[in-house]
Amino acid sequence: MHRNPIIVYLGSFGLLLFLLAGSISAKSPAPAIDYYAEEKAKQAYLLASALYAQQLYQEAIAEAVKLLALYPNTAKVPDTLYLIGTIHADTSNPKNNPLLAIKTWEELLARYPEYSQAPTVLMKIAETYESVFNWDKAAQTYARIIQLYPKSEFADDALFWAGCAEYTLARFDKAKQHWTTIVDKYSSGTEVTLKLNSEFLDDAYMMIAEVSLIQQDTTAAVTAYEKVVSLHPASPYLPVALFQLGKIYQETYYQPTYASSYYQRLLEYTSDPTWQRLAKLKLDQCQKKYSEPDAHSLKF
Question: Among residues 121, 123, 174, 216, which one has the fewest Cβ atoms lying within 10 Å of its Cβ?
Fold first, then answer.
């Protein structure tokens, strides 16, 4: 077998150096940074952003597309793709194109999976799917956020809105599962912790209650509505929760005394004329005897 005389002469130690040198030289050198292109790309991006801020949508897109063509290997490419998608999605843009926005953002994530704003991009994709009433795609995109970025600032929002998308599709068990995850995450801990998270819990508990009513799980609905009332006394959902609790005790459990207590609390809580009228109407109904022939048919 033919042997390289240089290797034979160097011996074993020389062979090791020779092989190491070969392995090092075989590696692709890091691409040199084109500082001129980087600076020009930054200027072009600032121009496109300024045009967008002035609501010159088509001019902004044109500048951004030109940037991608002239400086395709610069660090501003991901931000530029993000900007293009944002302009296409903007509802104030007369030529807005939500599907093209989604396509642009998906291209961004495919080309730059480590993009620092990836969770934000996914949230925008999900919200844009919602804007065109594609609830299934919205749910799938929220699920991607939950799976890929469970510790991001959007994880909880994704859980909640994924539940809403599933709810819209009448996939109630899946919806309830997302909202229950929120409840399990935030409903344990100290009283201070509960107070800090009560506003976020309100949303989840209210939706669990609504789904439970649809599924005719009255016990679960009562539990969820009671959580809204107890966790956050200033909740914007409090009038709804009190009214619904009154209705359940009045029309399902046939306990007018309990029902009246919720309607009375509703009267004391709000001065809104609509809620005042409804609460007084239901209180009047509760004063009737349920032994009357038509008593159980009393409905709002």
Answer: 216
- Measured CA to CA, the distance from residue 184 to residue 197 in angstroms comes to 12
CB 124 within 8 A of CB 85: yes
Mean pLDDT of the chain: 86
| Residue given tokens 């809204």 in the structure block | 228
CA distance 276 to 279: 5
Average pLDDT over residues 156-174: 96
Side chain identity, residue 55: Q
- How do residues 34-54 score in pLDDT, each as one tens digit? 899 999 999 999 999 999 999
Which single residue is written with the structure tokens 């496109």? 48
Residues comprising the chain, all counted:
300
Q: In a 3-state reduction of DSSP, which class is residue 288? A: coil
Report residue 251 as tokens. Answer: 């029309």
Mean pLDDT in residue range 267-289? 91
Longest dimension (CA), the chain: 113
Alpha helices in 54-117 (DSSP H): 57-70, 77-89, 98-111
Q: What is the pLDDT of residues 92-123, one digit of tens each?
A: 999 999 999 999 999 999 999 999 999 999 99
Residue 44 and residue 66 in contact, taking contact as beta carbons nearer than 8 Å = yes
Evaluate if pTM is beyond 0.85.
no
